[in-house]
Amino acid sequence: ALFAFRGARTRGWDAIKIVRPSSDEDPIELVVDNDAEIPVRIAVPSLLTTDRQWSAALDGSPRLDLVRFENIRRLTNAMMTERPQPHYIVYPECSLPFGWAKGIAYMLAGRGISMIAGLEYRLTPKGVRNDALISLSTVWPWYESALVFVQPKCAPAHEERRQLAAAGRKRLYNPVGDEASPPVYSHGKFCFGVLLCSDLTDIAHRRRFQ
User: Fold this and answer.
1) Using CB atoms within 10 A of its CB, is residue 135 exposed (0-12), middle (13-18) or buried (19+)?
2) Which of 13, 68, 107, 150 is the most exposed place for a label (fewest CB within 10 A)?
3) What is the pTM of this model?
4) β strands within the chain, DSSP E
């Protein structure tokens, strides 16, 4: 299809693949081709999420105002212009609205920058989602792009569980199957896993990554 419409072929599928483990105790590996050098440079911005923004997202009406957008835009642009340029930008938990995060991810991918971002709460029929968006830059298929994954938080923190209950008996989305086992992201020569907040306290996750 790409050859018919664009006159160009794609790289081999071995650049993007899922490797399933031989044991249930080992993680799934998501492989994305990338030529970035090692060691990698990681930018960790300090981005405030106010109580009003947190509550509004939990109520299903996130605050998408211009002031907030400009704050995120200025911060992101500042990191993009750093020299040397970071390979990854990591935003805090519950910091970016889902719609904005996708746009930021693809903008950064055009510069060869990957992103890991904590997404605002999203209401679903199966519970409140507290997700991380993982955008991995790549040149597959022959141009700057990114593969984007959404990884759910596996279990709420104790205080988070109380706050969800106080906000109308809401509960955190309960991932099952493959979603309940955070994968290893093999991004070129750099391999890492993502654990959100209280997920780090689960020894099974730490053992699996080790």
Assistant:
1) buried
2) 13
3) 0.88
4) 16-19, 29-32, 42-43, 88-96, 114-119, 122-124, 127-129, 131-138, 145-152, 184-187, 190-193
